[in-house]
TrEMBL record:
Alphabetically ordered keywords of this record: Monooxygenase, Oxidoreductase
Organism: Roseinatronobacter bogoriensis subsp. barguzinensis
Domain ABM: 10-97
Identification of the protein by name: Antibiotic biosynthesis monooxygenase
InterPro entries: ABM_dom, Dimeric_a/b-barrel
Gene3D superfamilies registered for this protein in UniProt: 3.30.70.100
MF terms (GO), sorted A to Z: monooxygenase activity
Keyword Oxidoreductase listed: yes
Length: 107
């Protein structure tokens, strides 16, 4: 994924907090959602999933053509159902939309 501050794309960073005992379940549910639903939605540009060492947090980073594309994906019946199931496994689940302010490529 090429990240650019001049892009009009929408960046979404979502954090999921859970116990180590449910981390694998949440990760598998997220992978299944990205594989079967999210990556096929109009405007989807790419994503990455990250897990912390303690297995108490998962962070997803996704890029969308526009904010409306991300919001439309969230409103689909299948994602509403999936998000309810994922949220039930988490202590907290928070998607936040961001604009890229600056980038620093490797030297």
């Amino acid at each position: 994924m090429q990240i650019s501050a001049t892009s009009d794309e929408q960046t979404v960073i979502s954090t999921f907090e859970m116990t180590p005992g449910t981390c694998t379940d949440v990760l598998e549910a997220l992978q299944d959602a990205y594989d079967k639903v999210i990556r096929h939605q109009p405007g989807f540009r790419g994503a990455a999933l990250h897990v912390n060492d303690a297995q108490t947090r998962i962070c997803t980073y996704s890029r969308w053509r526009a904010r409306a594309d991300f919001q439309a994906m969230l409103r689909t019946p299948e994602m509403r159902e999936r998000n309810r199931a994922i949220a039930a496994l988490c202590a907290r689940f928070e998607p936040v939309m961001y604009d890229v302010a600056a980038t620093y490529p490797a030297q």
